[in-house]
Amino acid sequence: MHSDSPENPTTLAPDPAPLIIKIKDLRFSYPGKMQSAVLDIPEWHIARGERVFLKGPSGSGKSTLLNLLAGILVANKGSIEILGQNLGALSARKRDRFRAAHIGIVFQQFNLIHYLSILDNIRLAAHFGNKGKTGLELTAKQLFEALGLDKALITKKASNLSVGQQQRVAIARALINAPEILIVDEPTSALDSDTRDTFMKVLLQISQTQGNTLIFVSHDTALTSHFHHVVNLAEINLAGGSKYVC
Ligand code: ADP
Ligand code: MG
């Protein structure tokens, strides 16, 4: 009997994970620079639960792509579908809500609000994510513990924290709503190698527990072993490729 015959269904290959991100014929230029597209991506997919390491030289469009995936920027042409929702079909307000509910982002500069306490920075993200207040402080404290941050920091102003601490807070803020997708843009560039390794360990551990799909941009190719896929932006992007040396 053939091993994958209907009589023996247990040997069938499992279904591949469903796609959580689908890009089709995406084109993007910044306003005033319509003649030179930063991104021209015919097709790109990411499956649920995948950990993708995105690399490419400085200026090649990595942050632009992350901002498009997060709905902060909007494509000039083509579509970006996240969790079955075409971002281009949403108003700016609905895109903001969609992002807050489904996507956690750690920006290169962390973007904490400096005059607010750490807890208020995290509360704000939870509020926009519509997850309510129940258990928020407890979840924040659990994330702090997992990230190796002193819980006493929670009442401090963001401006009083070191770069390493701010970065972990930015991760806690991105994860407070247990987002389906976690986007992280060059998070280790300001860290020494010991802090970087600890940071990666906790980030990957928490992200795995939450089951996030992870898109991680970095120059640090020593980190690629933590990822399922390593994608060079030039492989998927037809725009501007010849300008850069990879
Ligand atoms: P990377 O993250 O790979 O370093 P970016 O996405 O930041 O690259 O930038 C891609 C290109 O878009 C660069 O040529 C950059 O100068 C340009 N660019 C980035 N942000 C803006 C902006 N806000 N307005 C106009 N051009 C921009
Ligand atoms: Mg960038």
Overview of this protein structure:
- The protein is of the alpha/beta class and 246 residues long.
- It has one domain: Rossmann fold.
- Helices cover 31% and strands 20% of the residues.
- The chain has seven helices and nine strands, in the order βββαββαβαααβαββα.
- The protein has helices at residues 62-69, 92-102, 118-128, 136-146, 163-175, 193-210, 233-236; strands spanning 19-28, 39-47, 51-55, 77-82, 85-86, 103-106, 181-185, 213-217, 229-232.
- A hairpin with a 2-residue loop joins β4 and β5 (85-86).
- The longest helix has 18 residues, at 193-210.
- It is globular and about 50 Å long.
- The chain starts with 18 loop residues before the first strand and ends in a 10-residue tail after the last helix.
- The site of magnesium ion has 3 residues, from α1.
Write the layout of secondary structure elements.
Blueprint lengths: L18 E10 L10 E9 L3 E5 L6 H8 L7 E6 L2 E2 L5 H11 E4 L11 H11 L7 H11 L16 H13 L5 E5 L7 H18 L2 E5 L11 E4 H4 L10
Parallel strand pairs: 3-8, 3-9, 6-7, 7-8
Antiparallel strand pairs: 1-2, 1-4, 4-5
Helix pairs in contact: 3-5, 5-6
This protein binds adenosine-5'-diphosphate and magnesium ion.
Adenosine-5'-diphosphate binds next to helix 1.
